[in-house]
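[audit] Reproducing an earlier prediction to check determinism. Same input, same settings, fresh worker. If the tokens differ from the archived copy the diff job will pick it up downstream; this log only records the rerun itself.
[audit] input (183 residues):
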Amino acid sequence: MDDIVKAAMAKWPNVPHCYGWLALDARGTWRMRDERCQAMNLAGDPIRHSSLLGFINRNYQHDDQGQWYFQNGPQRVYVDLETTPYIARTSDCGFTLHNNEAMPLPEHVYLDASGHLILQSKAMLAQLDDRDLAECLSLLYTGDAIVSDEQLLAWMNRQAPTLQLTLQLPGNDHLRIPVQHAE
């Protein structure tokens, strides 16, 4: 957390929390949601200012109940998450998060019935940006063979209970992580 934020929190300890004004979409874009967007359930305007994005990313965290927020000076601005608290993109060495940090090596990989790939590393949960899904689907294996479309659909529909899938990490020909059904 930035020192300026810590100082503001000490100076103004009782500022009310803010809800509904900030969102993180499924592609890792921070969005500002004014009253009109909130009332009409719209995504909001993308935040493009690099300094503001850096400030949000550095001060993004969660509370004891697992609710994610951005500490904006003395005020907590709770985030409306479209999916998971982090969004991942493929990179040469695995995955990079929406905040431009490298994602730690995933310990678990989940695939849901809608085709969303979800990565978990300790308490960190990230959904793969849909623009990278095709690349990762080509890294799904059953044994030593790339999984076929038919096998993948059967697995996703739970019609192939003995089929085991693994995901080869992007940029790493030797590391594969078992894929599980997302519940």
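[audit] rerun output stored. Observation attached for the diff report: The chain has a mean pLDDT of 92.
[audit] end
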